[in-house]
Specification:
Elements (H helix, E strand, L loop, with lengths): L10 H11 L3 E2 L9 E2 L1 H20 L3 E2 L5 E3 H4 L3 H7 L5 E5 L2 E9 L4 H11 L8 E10 L14 E11 L2 H21 L5 E4 L11 E8 L5 E11 L1 H5 L3 E3 L5 E3 L1 E8 L1 H10 L16 E5 L6 H17 L4 E3 L7 H11 L3 E5 L1 H6 L1 E6 L5 E5 L3 H27 E3 L3 H10 L3 E6 L3 H11 L2 E6 L19 E6 L3
Parallel strand pairs: 3-7, 15-16, 15-17, 20-21
Antiparallel strand pairs: 1-2, 4-6, 5-6, 7-8, 8-14, 9-10, 9-22, 10-11, 11-14, 12-13, 17-18, 18-19, 21-23, 22-23
This protein binds one RNA strand of 77 nucleotides through helix 10 and helix 11.
Length: 477
RNA sequence: CGGGGAGUAGCGCAGCCUGGCAGCGCACCUGCCUUGGGAGCAGGGGGUCGGCGGUUCAAAUCCGCCCUCCCCGACCA
């Protein structure tokens, strides 16, 4: 077994191991929580960027780049927003030996800097909607323990920010962002539950937040994406006004949404196994690895055949690579590329050349498929699709299995101790009851179903008073 | 921030108690040979033993101070 730790029984250790051995991240950097994304990891991000960027542009977003420096007074302009992020903002206080009169923060998110510019750009309803996207790095200097990709001090993300003339348009924008995200998650074969966050867990300064929680194998959930309806909270704070057709003035209605490199942690956790990573085909740096099977005196023939197959696949738009090195045995390569998570392996040796065929081996189930050369491209594409579909089905099955129901505190406690997962239960709406859950069981009220009023089926799981909502509770990263 | 553990080659570790040439496995380089599930043989390269100071003829080893990382807890958008 290539990995020393078992995914099922030692998930935390397995995760740390797979992140490093699958060459996703090298965290041997001088600064805790700020790591190197290696080609096999950054490649996932680049492909996510391509997918998202295409959709964002198709829906009228434009890419911008804003400064990463945010003066304190600007960040402070929306009080709730500031107090939400203040504890983890990194500040520049000195330049050389000279102390700055006003310290400058490194963006923990870009609302403040962006909206201060929006107020300069937006004059009238004819300037709306404004749909801004930015790809950038973010700094959130957690003093507590960091964890590769799950909680880094510096990470990459995309952030969409829009301004609209009406609340209804902003509502529509929230939905559009969700459609874009759900399409991406589908490409990544991730499953999730969509929740409207409770008040106390709403993005600082937002009217409400919608988030995607993905069930990880250890029973905890990971937020893989989020979208906020900001209402007029920020436009009032940053004075983003526009003139309406009737001549009146109003503050714009805003939304923001984001997906970060954290999602790579979800990809690894969902699809990896004890052999290593398994990168979903749509985002894998290498989709097909070609391994020549050499035999004495037949090196050149095999090498030539492998190169020919490589060309064919590349010309068909498939991200293929051939490992022609002869100082590693084919067995070693099989294991290596399984560790790296390449979804499909193609073997070609003297026997195959004679029969004018190749052998495909699926990373997800190890199945070997013999393919005539003239069907090569089609079979490879079909198999990549089949792998993705298998991963997707497994993912949704996991979500289904992770949800359970509890009426009483004792039941939650029991479920928490046995398998965790997502627990459907009832809540009175009092934040104190949420605190009790967090303190006693370290589980959080993650939210309510978004477009579905669910009738409480019991009294509040903590205090026993009348429940107002059906909520979903989980232990989160 | 509190409690515990650990820093020796890229990785994993031994050596420390009892001071005396800095080692082992994997990885890496060269050559031969091999290749359909992690081959073999031979040769080779790589070290501020976390840092600073002290004791000593002599420190990876003993003493002091500091730094970093990991685990548990607290805290945390």
């Amino acid at each position: 077994m290539p990995l020393e730790h078992d995914k099922k029984t030692e998930f935390a250790e397995w995760y740390s191991e797979v992140v490093k051995k699958a060459e996703i991240v090298d965290n041997r950097t001088p600064v805790k929580g700020a790591n190197v994304l290696l080609p096999n990891g950054y490649g996932i991000w680049e492909n996510i960027q391509k997918i998202l960027d295409r959709e964002l542009k198709a829906t009228g977003h434009n890419n911008y780049y804003f400064p990463m420096f945010i003066p304190e007074e600007l960040l402070n302009q929306e009080a709730e927003h500031f107090s939400g992020f203040a504890p983890e903002v990194a500040w520049i206080t000195h330049v050389g030996n000279r102390k700055l009169e006003r310290k400058v923060g490194l963006r923990p998110t870009s609302e403040a800097i962006m909206y201060s510019m929006f107020s300069l750009w937006i004059r009238a309803h004819t300037d709306l909607p404004l749909k801004v996207n930015q790809w950038c790095n973010i700094v959130r200097w957690d003093t507590k323990e960091t964890k590769v990709l799950l909680r880094d001090r510096e990470f990459l993300w995309h952030e969409g920010h829009t301004a609209h003339a009406t609340y209804e348009e902003a509502e529509e924008q929230v939905k559009e962002s969700m459609r874009i995200y759900e399409k991406l998650f589908d490409d990544l074969a991730l499953s999730y539950i969509i929740l409207k966050r409770p008040k106390h867990d709403t993005f600082p300064g937002a009217d409400y937040s919608v988030a995607y929680d993905a069930p990880l194998p250890d029973g905890r959930v990971l937020q893989i994406g989020t979208t906020h309806n900001l209402g007029q909270n920020f436009s009032k704070a940053f004075d983003v006004k526009f003139q309406k057709p009737d001549g009146d003035h109003d503050y714009v209605y805003q939304t923001s949404y984001g997906i970060s490199t954290r999602i790579i942690a979800a990809i690894l956790s969902f699809h990896g196994d004890n052999k290593g990573a398994l990168i979903p085909p749509k985002v894998a740096l290498t989709q097909v690895i070609i391994i020549p099977i050499y035999f004495k005196n037949k090196h050149e023939i095999v090498k030539e055949a492998a190169n020919k197959v490589l060309e064919t696949l590349k010309n068909a738009g498939i991200r293929a690579r051939a490992d022609l090195r002869d100082n590693y045995t084919s067995g070693w390569k099989f294991n290596q590329y399984e560790l790296l998570g390449v979804p499909l392996r193609l073997e070609i040796g003297p026997r195959d050349i004679e029969k004018n065929q190749v052998v495909l081996v699926r990373r997800d189930n190890g199945e070997k498929i013999t393919v005539p050369q003239d069907q090569l491209v089609k079979k490879v594409k079909d198999t990549l699709d089949a792998i993705e579909e298998t991963l997707r089905q497994k993912a949704w099955k996991r979500l289904e299995e992770s949800i359970s129901e509890a009426k009483t505190f004792e039941e939650i406690e029991k479920i928490y101790n046995e398998k965790r997962g997502i627990i459907r239960t009832n809540w009175c709406g009092n934040p104190e009851c949420a605190d009790v859950l967090k303190e006693k069981l370290s589980v959080e009220i993650r939210g309510t179903k978004l477009n579905e009023e669910e009738e409480p089926f019991h009294s509040c799981v903590v205090c026993g008073k009348e429940a107002k909502q059906v909520v979903y509770v989980a232990s989160a990263y």
